[in-house]
Amino acid sequence: MLQVDLRELARGPCATVGELPADDPLFAGLGSSLARPVVVSGRLQEIGEGRFYWHGSLSTVVRGECRRCLTAVTLPVAVDIGALFSQDPESEDDPDTYPLLRDATVVDVTPAVREELVLAAPTFLLCREDCRGLCPRCGQDLNAGPCECRPATDSRWQGLAALKDKVRD
Ligand SMILES: [Zn+2]
Ligand SMILES: [Zn+2]
Q1: Rounded to the nearest 5 degrees, what angle is found at the Cα of 107, between the Cα atoms of 92 and 30?
Q2: Which residues pair with 98 in a beta bridge?
């Protein structure tokens, strides 16, 4: 369970184990899509009056296109998480603490899962560090070999020459 009852926590640290489906609304607007469920584990414990510390981890697989050559790419993501939850209204403005309502009956660790995943998921993917991408002129995948196009500097000159011709007309 990723929501732990406060009465359970009063008795001692509690295990947090769960799996969130890749299409869980929690991950809406994530930027990259998930190819696998998000597997969560960890341990939640009370560390003071209305204060709880969660040490957990998440792992999943992110899916997308290589930014340069558009090949389908998957990337495993794993994050170690330390998060503080607090019922203290004064900690509401603390960016390092997840606020809990005064009358909360459970600690839900999923907001921390979402935030850590947002931070860890790459905003763009590459099929490999040195991907050569597609030729901007003919669209050939340059990882497969050079295309027939002239080098980029040549084509820029050609463009300029064509422009000059037009102006002259
Ligand atoms: Zn690529
Ligand atoms: Zn080309």
Answers
A1: 75
A2: 85
CB atoms < 10 A from the CB of 120, how many?
15
Sequence spans of domains, the chain:
3-120, 133-169
Distance, CA of 74 to chain centre: 12
**Cα(142) to centroid(ligand 2), Å:** 8
Q: In the block, which residue shows the tokens 């497969």?
A: 144
- Token pair, residue 20, equals 């969130």
* 125-165 pLDDT tens trace: 999 999 999 999 999 999 999 999 976 555 555 555 556 65
| Per-residue CA distances from 35 to 24, 50, 130 (Å) | 12, 36, 24
Written as one string, the DSSP assignment of 16-38 is --EEE-TT-GGGTT-SSEESS-E
At 40 the three-state DSSP class reads strand
pLDDT of 101-129, one tens digit each? 999 999 999 999 999 999 998 888 999 99
* 151 Cα: distance to centroid of ligand 1 (angstroms): 20
What is the Å distance from ligand 2's center to 133 Cα? 11
> What does the pLDDT look like over 23-53, one tens digit per residue?
999 998 887 799 999 999 999 999 999 999 9
3-state SS, residue 93: helix
CA 107 to chain centre: 23
